[in-house]
Model the fold of this input.
Amino acid sequence: MERIVIQGGKRLNGKISIDGAKNAVLPIIAATILAKGSSQIHEVPYLADVNTICSMLSSIGAVVERRNKQLIINTNLVNTTEATSENAGEMRASFLLMGPLLARYGKAKMLLPGGCAIGSRPVDLHLKGFAALGAEIVMEHGSIAAHAEKLVGARIYLDFPSVGATENLMMAASMAEGQTILENVAEEPEIVDLANFLNNMGARVSGAGTNLIKVTGVPELKGCNHVVIPDRIEAGTYMAAAAAAGGEVLIENVIIDHLKPVVAKLREAGVVVEEEADGIRIKSDGILQPVDIKTMPYPGFPTDMQAQMMALLMRAEGTSVISETVFENRFMHVDELKKMGANISTEGHTAVVQQVERITGAVVKATDLRAGAALVIAGLMAEGVTEIKEIKHIKRGYDGLVEKLSSVGADIRIVERDDESGAERIA
Ligand code: UD1
Done:
């Protein structure tokens, strides 16, 4: 199995360019189901999650073609509304096919979604919303079927501003009869990118990026061209990596506004963050101050940066308190970081990170995508060698992570290791 091996202690210097946002491109790919004709999506990163959603689309009859960073998707030949292929269970975002299938074809059947093992992650808000739009929902043996003669606009209040539910309902409402008002919705930049894509296809969506979205249904949508926004979590991860390892790194192709909470916390930790015309420059001597962090829906501090910040704060001079309010059970990286010498205790949704003298390399396991990124950051600042197992999780969300970090001076590589004998093969 492949592992990432890092020799820690190298300072990082140079430039890293950010790819298109995973969490924007996945719903946009799902939304192509709504359109007649082809859509061209640009700046599509090479990620396992992108491959998974594309193969789900292919399995229902769509024609999906990749030309470098461009995807061309034609859904005219979709011949089934049952997206129940095996890989659907691998990724929670697969459930984003439900809204578009229901809107375009009046029915859909999906497996209960999988994804990172971070809490129970139900889809009740998606289903309540579909029901409010007039769908009948039937659950059986791990699958969910929805059916509607026609969807009719409604006023829907989300109990929690769920990103996925906001996206699924926006897509379903875009072809419903009349107006839908979605209240207490998520405000993430990826929601705005999806709304822009839908509007490019001819939808009438307004208010994306605020907590109230209005959608006036239209009978037909057409394929369009779209450039995906840069990935703010990928950017934040490399900002944290540079801050942790020390050095000077320019992070290019970012939208600075999307990174405000991460920038604020890095500055509080004593990192120099300079906003430049072509990116964000991080300067760090590796000496960090403790900070407290509470994850919140956007524009609050992103839960997808919690693990990486925790890794960084292991070396801060004092005690940091991290509260996770978005997901249950999103501290699985703590046990792995402890193997590297971290002093972290957790109680419920709170983790207390205390200063330690030394962080040392160890054999650790990526338990989910961002936990994997946290281990990479810990490995960069550790003494000695860190070996990360289960890197399939990291490949779900980081395009070229090893290459990007190597290019700024990290000693990081992928090895193929025989898990039985422990012998290394060249990857
Ligand atoms: C998206 C992101 C993920 C990010 C998360 C929060 C994608 C592909 N993934 O995931 O990277 O960590 O937003 O920023 O965009 N919930 C319910 N019922 C529901 C839906 C959600 O209780 O019907 C709960 C979840 O269990 C969780 C919280 O709401 O505790 C947030 O989930 P949500 O915002 O829906 O996250 P995702 O869309 O799955």
Q: What stands out?
A: The chain is about 30% helix and 30% strand. The mean pLDDT is 94.
